[in-house]
Amino acid sequence: MAYISCPFCAMVCDDLSLPLHNRETTTPQFGCNKADQGFRSALQATRQTPLIDGEEASWEAAMKQAGSLLKGAKHPLFHGLAGDLLDSRAAIRMADHFGGSIDHLHGDAIARNLRIYQQSGWQISSMGEVRNRADLVILIGTAPEQLYPRLREKMLEGSERLHGDVPPTIRELGDDCLDLLSIVRARLAGKPVQQDIADSETLIGQINAASYPVFVIAPLPEQRAELIVRTCVGLVRDLNETRRSALLMLGAGDGDTTAQLSATWHNGFGIRTCHAKGYPEQDLQMQAGDRLLQSGEADLLVWFSSLRCDPPPAVAQPTIVFGHPAMSFTDKPPALFLPVAVPGVHRRGYLHRADGLRLVPLPALRESPLPDSGALCDQLISQEPRRC
Amino acid sequence: MLIRLKGAQIYDPVNELNGAPGDVWVRDGYICAAPENPAEADRTIDLEGRILMAGAIDIHSHIAGGNVNNARLLLPEQHLAEQARRPRFPFSGAKWSGSDTGYRYAEMGFTTVVEPAVLPINAHQAHAELADIPIIDTAGLAIVGNDDFLLRMLRDGAEQARINDYIAWTLHATQCLGVKVINAGGATAFKFNERQLNLDDEVPMYGMTSRAILNAVQRAVVQLGIAHPVHVHCNNLGIPGNVNTALDTIKAADGLPMHLAHVQFYGYGDEGDSGFSSGARALADAVMANPNITVDIGQVLFGQTVTISGDIMRQFDARHIANPKKWVVWEGEDGGGGIVPFRYRAKNYVNALQWAIGLELFLLIDDPWRVFFTTDHPNGAPFTAYPELFKLLMDRQYRNQWLESINAKSADISLLRHLEREYDLNEIAIMTRAAPAKLLGLKDRGHLSVGAIADIAVYRPQEDKAAMFGNAELVLKNGVPVVENGRVIQVIQGKTHAVAPEFDRGIESAISTYFDRYHLMKMDNYKLDPQHLLETVGSELVFH
Ligand code: SF4
């Protein structure tokens, strides 16, 4: 039995099975709604030809158009990056070649976590370590089971574990837990607190009783996220002075971890890096994709989205989309739409699991005439030699 | 294409050429015999007065994988770009990127580099990164010794033959060239809140010692016939008095081949008022007395760097000396590690002594076939500081100048003042070419015999050895000129080397069941598929 990996959420489960005779099916059932939907829309997608201003065009004409848009742009922005390793590599290489900036759809969250990381570092765990060793999971975030449908099944509820056979206690804190966490941190450090919360006693009790409490942080609303993450980083650091504890940051998916990590080994810094001066410069605020678009500093949007069907943001700039073949446009179509292979469906690829420790191989489920963004990128780079 | 490299002084210890002038011929990527008629050459490069060696090989340099990449993210201030990208050279303005790693190594005449710490679960990323390093060939060493499957086998008294199958399977799964043990059992003990593990301490829950793990892996490597001996990061790294750990580990090798990595970090005595002294003499004597032992140094050079290690105990312990004050510690399947930035200062007693201990070891171990040139990049210093290290080894006067400016107490107690030895070019060629190729089992390189890969470095002789080795005048990779006058002139794709020892595939059913019971991944997807790697990230594997 060959197993299929699923690229449609940050879990990147690699244990889906599709009976071989069913490879041609367009309505797979994997027992995970998100996976079913992701595979279905990719398998049912029929678009194979590019669109120039919404009109079907040949690949030759489309690539010529892409080349001239890129050549004419002073500051292209390579954004979205909702794809796998090959997609993000293509975007990063194009940013280096054409002198543009890169960002990810979830750039705000990536940048916020990176800022915290770069200021202090942190102590983290992996999905497998939580699966096997955590005896208390403090789950922080908004509806994580919607974001990662199989989180519990795969990571939190396994009864066969390396150490012991009882799944961890799960303490769900949602996303409104800053006060509670701050009080717990202060009390554990023996500091006075002005106002306590009843819940703090129980949480402290749970933490004290655990031998490996792990703070699992799923995506949070932006206005609360920074302080919650910082508090957890500090709490974990304090606890480790005498015992064990760790954080586990789970990304939002859509290739966020892959984009960040692969950008890092290519340009040294990761996303929100600008190559316009010929060398990479990272600025987590100034290079935010949305800001570059709103301010007009970026004059071309190049949107990569091989995993998601939603259209790119509506912006004033001309837009080139390297997109999922089922992408549709209700408003104005982009200047150029290039349908590309969906990784894990139309072509092989790689995608990082949510903790970044593991790059999961994605198989190809069926033959497809769709090009991958890497091949298009190579063509554009060789067709338009670099200006400087 | 037939290239004649004409008239250089050739240093090729394997063929006992020690500076004799001569020609080297290259055809289609390999070194070939001289044709009867020299006029057949398509291209002749006149190298009279130049020094020619095989391309250099680095056996221990952290150039890829999650730990390295997260260190890049942690320290953007350390690699701000200084110059713009050169046209035709992607990411050439991106310091400490994968591309930069390939370019800088090539410019110094290095053509093969080994990443010594590939955590199996992270092997796909490590290989994807290696594939993005241009020009040089690469290889990885797979980390074992904290893997629960192995520890369970040992606890359950598995036969050595099964251990061998498992080690071979790990190499197959990770497509690596050898195996590495980091503080055997240490990461596991850390997960039980132990903060130190000695060679004879028991690993909690498994009831066996660090020594037993090490021995089992070492025997497996020997019995499987893997050329590269078990690559060992000992227990107690960085702790005063740990020279005894290194000496015990040498004894534990029991005459079988073993490579001790970055021994500078184990050359520490605990004598004197500060409780920190040089153990270099004892360690060097032990290495000299045990021909089964090879070592690399992990030289410290002064300046800012970052320590990156799979030794989670050590990195956790070092968090308080982080400079700048930020650190990362992580735990993952079958291991863990940490990233701790550090600045080595010449006026600091301990740092200056570390610097001296490394050099003492280099100079006291009088067998360039068994001591290897490394800074444990970036732990002791970034590899870009290699020219400085060549100069220190080859120029006694230069060492003495340094002794005047480092911490005076360290300079006083160091043996360095009394060591007159200077490495000569033949010894450099052994230590950085012939010996590493032999140690890694890469028979096709490290020498200039007919049939060898045409990896060649040419230097202009100079009094200043840092200048000489910092910028090769000409470098050929697979017969292609890639560097001229110290600058990359052409980008080609390197290959990644691995071994494929035979094993009983029957072990896969046990491993697969184990994965299904305990992990979030399937065994089949955990294993690297060379074809998948080639098709997706363009990584070409070569098996030995
Ligand atoms: S949980 Fe996520 S990765 Fe797993 S099958 Fe569902 S959508 Fe796919």
TrEMBL record, chain B:
InterPro entries with a match to the protein in the record: Amidohydro_3 (IPR013108), Formylmethanofuran_DH_asu (IPR012027), Metal-dep_hydrolase_composite (IPR011059), Metal_Hydrolase (IPR032466), Metallo-dep_Hydrolases_sf (IPR050378)
GO terms of molecular function: hydrolase activity, acting on carbon-nitrogen (but not peptide) bonds
Domain Amidohydrolase: 43-483
One Pfam family, short name: Amidohydro_3
Coiled-coil regions, chain positions: none
PANTHER family: COLLAPSIN RESPONSE MEDIATOR PROTEIN (PTHR11647:SF1), HYDRANTOINASE/DIHYDROPYRIMIDINASE FAMILY MEMBER (PTHR11647)
Protein name: Formylmethanofuran dehydrogenase
